[in-house]
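User: Assemble these into one structure.

Assistant: Restating your components, then the assembled model:
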Amino acid sequence: MTLPFTTSRRGWLLLAVLLPLLLLFAWVALRSGPLAPVNVTVVQVEDRAISPALFGIGTVEARYTQKVGPTAAGRVSMVAVDVGDTVKEGQLIAQIDPIDLDQRIDAAAGGSARSAALEQAAVAQIADATARVALAQSQAARTEKLKEGGWVTDAMVDQRRQELAGARASLAAAQANRNAAGQDRGRLGAERAALVQQKANLRLVAPHAGLVVRRAVEPGTTVVAGQAVIEIIDPSQLWINVRFDQTQSAGLAAGLPVRIALRSRPESQVAGTIERVEPMADALTEEVLAKALFSLAEGIPSIGELAEVTVALPARARTPAIPNAAVHRVDGQVGVWVIRGGDLDFVKVKIGAQNLDGWVQILDGLKTGEQIILHSAKALSANSRFSIVKSLP
Amino acid sequence: MISLAGRDILHGWGKFVLTGVGLGLLIGVTLSMAGVYRGMVDDAQALLDNSHADLWVVQKDTLGPYAEPSSLPEDSERPIQAMRGVAQAAGVTYLTMQIAQGDKDVRVMVVGTEMGEPGMPGQPTHLIAGRQIVRGHYEAVADVKSGFALGDRVKVRRNFYTVVGLTSRMVSSGGDPMLFLSLKDAQAAQFQKDSDAIVRQRARTEANPQLNPPGNPAVAAAVNAVQSGNTNVNAVLVTITPDADPDLVADAIRRWQRLTVYTRAEMEEILVQKLIANSARQIAMFLVILSIVSAAIVAFIIYTMTIGKIREIAVLKLIGTRNRTISWMILQQALGLGLIGFVVGKIAASLWAPFFPKYVLLLPADSIRGFFAVMLICTLASVLAIQAALKVDPAEAIGG
């Protein structure tokens, strides 16, 4: 059979249209859709010393916060300081209304004075009773002598003895009166001292020098025992209560240097150190808590401001390392797609530390220089066709 | 032997090729429509593939997390992790939202996954650029369809996230590109209210004497703390050990954890049969109509083409050409037209497929089916034309 158009010009023209069409068709069928090879980029396993870093976020907190409030319920009569004020140790910052305390102190003072007067009266009574005892004693002694000579009767002797006993009893009563009055004076004095103390306790003073950060109530407000009226912090001691994901907290320890980026100034990094790693982790959020101390050159950040904390850990020994985008999990195994002899091979690997640029240590499974798949346009399988390109997409 | 069809085609080859191309564009539209339908189903399946989970544990009696809202405490993954047959369990959150990209908005599905170790269920399966998330906060991996590039800063709710990796074909069942965040960031995005709402809520709490009893100011603070925290997830994705039976593991979780569990097959049914059922059926219906219309147009073109040459056919008959030869010529021309049409259609569909806003999947099997359908339709159409041609009176060549 001869082709109908081999010789004619028209035949060539038709061929010139149909042939590119067929070529385009073949290209389209093979290079697009599910039959097309998967475009991939490759990378070589490198020897690197990975410096892992931990990344956590936290809030600025004052290390020492004093919440000053009364020890008993009362009404606030005066607040002497406002938020932002700096206070010295012992400075009066607020006052609770003493109500009847002054009158009670006066009453106690009056009671005490009365007791002193009673004590004086008792002393005078003792002097009187002592004189009586002396008189009764001499009279009784004289009567005893006269009786020996038979000058007086027995009845007379008995009377004198009774008088002496009476005088002694009066003396004892007067002494007891004096003791009672003394005790009473002591008690009322102590009561007064207690009321004075209580009154002093209603003066709320700064327990420590610092900065007033909160004025919780205004004069006239009734507060309960223990309720904060004024909050004072020590502005020289600020730290960040930082939280690290538990999976990424290995190596976290006190003393490590950190870089802190405050939310208000994310570009300027502040240096600090890990003051301590809390022994108690947060079980619910699966985070480890730590405190990072820092200080700013000027001003203080807002307490409660969010901050990002990066902890650089010491570099590990040089091992083969790969970017984390190359690591996949296939059938429950963590591994990497390696190009061996032009074919894809899923190689199980053991991965170690990771740095913040996404490089992971390969502890086992890969050798330096091996060619591995980094990025792929689709998820790969062992019999995927692939073609290596410089970059995707 | 001289090929009559070839001669005839050569005679008016420009017209023939142009007709074929026109036909091809129509076939291309039909193939694309089939691709749109396949793409829709594939989007739903890609969602399941990408989560590479064997089981989906969701709030009891919900069709979550894709078809219905579902919410369960994050720590419910722990007892699941301890069950026999479970290899991994990881919480995941899904939230479809509108985020700003340059001057315009882009609709994305924000996915929160556990990023602690590689290959946890829910993580992006492959990247086309950049790296996976390393920091526990403020990093994102975006699907390339979202339009973001490496290094872009994306604002989700109140925080900015840096795009560190790009992935592809990571879409929601509706075809929205995904934006992967770490689980805690995504929880914040999903559950954290805006500042105004928080302030108003605090004021409301303070005004409520039950939540803020006089004489006990600590209660209001505690209530506020409770209201602002949330550690829920939308689902727990579970992978099972190679020797475990997914149905048995699912039964065990249902029985002992009192949660609803879906296996891959059940999830697929929920997505394909329930979630995209109506829109897919809509497309399928349109595809059927389009196929019928295309078939009719192909048939009419071939018929009119033959009728246009009726005088030439009459001449052929007059000079004694056999009926078989004439029939063969018409059939050959019809099949040739169909072939050009199919080739042009396939090329056109493949070339314009990437420009569709949603994924268009042109399956080779669909193309092959389309090829045979086109050939069948051409054959049937040529039968009509052949009948007309054979009925022609040779006298028409001279008269008429």
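The longest strand of chain B covers residues 86-101.
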